[in-house]
Write a structure and sequence with these properties.
Layout lengths: L5 H11 L2 E2 L5 E2 L3 H15 L2 H14 L18 H6 L15 H4 L1 H18 L9 E4 L4 E4 L2 E4 L16 E3 L2 E4 L1 E10 H6 L4 H26 L8 E3 L2 E3 L35 H12 L15 E4 L4 H9 L28 E4 L17 E4 L6 E13 L5 H6 L1 E14 L5 E5 L4
Parallel strand pairs: 3-14, 11-12
Antiparallel strand pairs: 1-2, 4-7, 5-6, 8-15, 9-10, 11-13, 13-16, 14-15
Length: 429
């Protein structure tokens, strides 16, 4: 067996992030992901509080701190002293001093850290935008009422009265939850830092805020866990699904018998194989709504952890028999047969896939198939990442010469309708 070259491995990875249209063209990322990314950027820089702070800062300092060219706080070796000396003060020998640096320019410090946090928030790679629908929330609780359509047509005889149709739907709500932390740095370190370490540490605030939403999304995607525990990662706990309708059975959001007869999980979980993937696709394409009618579910995405990254690449990109069973030629999935699932879906790999015990595990065997074109799962964002600086003349800043920043985000994520998602394994198999 010959070894793959680096170029072949890169090609396989790129193809695993794409789908093939009927006309033969490949699409790397679906349009929904680009739309979600744009909504996130608008939510960050055009958030009312951030926009007010940008405008206030611009009036005082004559430039927008979101402009990375004029306010390069993310560059290595950025110096707050040099930044202060560029503010246009009449005394050319002016320099920050230990006694009053934090109180003289609190707006510069906060604006700088906010720019660092937001820049890192946008650049941290995440995967949930590829298949969720981003909702810019403007209230404490968002209400959702997905409808499942009306009853089907029936034959009407001559002079007979038409039957009445009725609709069915769900009435659910999702509360925005708050997450945050406080970052403190010694004033001397802030003044004397020439290595970029302060900027690096501040950037972690943005990185963790972005990863927090990734954790929330995949914790909610996993559904429930053994023993009814909540998902946990580091010091963060994410509750089980909060959008379960009152008339659904236990085990929601995954069930073999939804109201109306639908199903989105097998009788017993299985490993990621070609037959099991085909079973999942068939199950979703036969999905039923609340009224027992066929739903237009067209699965296009498979989600796995790093454990299955290369197995999934082989399954989705091999032209011939990736799941050889016997030497019988011409049989689907066996020797010399074509690969029926080649390019049938795009692969999404996240390091935050939870196992059956509600724990993030790099070797989690959980996997999912879903239709990313439908808004069945929302990532709800109230505040992407907000930074507040403690007053330099009070509290810990005054007592111990520590500059403290509080970083917080508000949001949530959950299912609107899990019938568009199939759980092949919860990680137990």
């Amino acid at each position: 067996m010959s070894l793959l070259t680096v170029q072949e491995i890169e090609k396989s990875f790129l193809e695993s992030r794409s789908v093939t249209k009927p006309n033969g063209t490949r699409l790397r990322i679906n349009e929904a992901e680009e739309i979600n990314t744009k909504q996130l950027k608008d939510n960050i820089w055009n958030n009312p509080e951030i926009r007010w702070m940008r405008e206030s800062f611009q009036r005082k300092m004559k430039f927008d701190f979101a402009d990375s060219k004029k306010f390069p706080v993310m560059e290595r070796g950025f110096s707050w002293k040099k930044m202060a000396n560029k503010m246009g003060y009449p005394n050319p020998t002016f320099a920050l001093k230990e006694a009053d640096s934090g109180s003289v320019f609190p707006q510069v410090l906060r604006a700088g850290v906010q720019a660092i946090v937001n820049s890192m928030y946008l650049t941290v790679p995440t995967t949930y935008e590829a298949w969720t629908t981003t909702v810019n929330s403007d209230k404490d609780t968002e209400l959702y009422a997905p409808l499942h359509g009306v009853s089907f047509l029936r034959e009407v005889g001559k002079k007979e009265q038409y039957g009445e149709s009725f609709a069915a739907g769900l009435d659910i709500k999702l509360v925005n939850r708050k997450y945050g932390t406080i970052f403190g740095v010694e004033k001397e370190l802030l003044e004397d830092d020439t290595t970029g370490q302060f900027a690096k540490q501040a950037s972690l605030l943005g990185e963790y805020c972005r990863e927090a939403m990734e954790v929330i999304v995949y914790a909610k995607l996993a559904g429930t866990f053994n023993g009814g525990v909540s998902a946990s990662y580091a010091q963060m706990t994410v509750p089980n699904t909060e959008t379960k309708p009152s008339n659904e059975v236990n085990g929601y959001p995954y069930s073999q018998s939804f109201v109306g007869g639908g199903s989105n999980r097998p009788a017993s979980f299985g490993v990621l194989t070609q037959p099991n993937i085909q079973t999942g696709f068939i199950a979703l394409m036969n999905q039923l709504n609340l009224l027992g009618l066929k739903m237009s579910v067209d699965p296009d995405t498979i989600i796995v952890s790093p454990k299955y990254r290369f197995d999934l690449a082989v399954l989705l990109n091999s032209s011939f028999y990736p799941s050889q069973v016997s030497s019988t030629s011409g049989t689907t999935g066996q020797s010399f047969a074509i690969n029926p699932i080649e390019s049938i879906a795009k692969a999404v790999i996240s390091r935050f896939i939870f196992n059956q015990n509600g724990v993030v595990n790099a070797n989690s065997a959980a996997w999912y198939i879903l239709d990313s074109k439908k808004p069945f799962f929302v990532s709800q964002m109230r505040e992407a990442a907000t930074v507040e600086q403690e007053a330099p003349t009070s509290g810990e800043s005054f007592n111990r010469d520590v500059i403290r920043f509080k970083c917080s985000m508000r949001g949530n994520a959950d299912f609107i309708d899990p019938r568009y998602c199939y759980q092949g394994s919860d990680g137990s198999v």
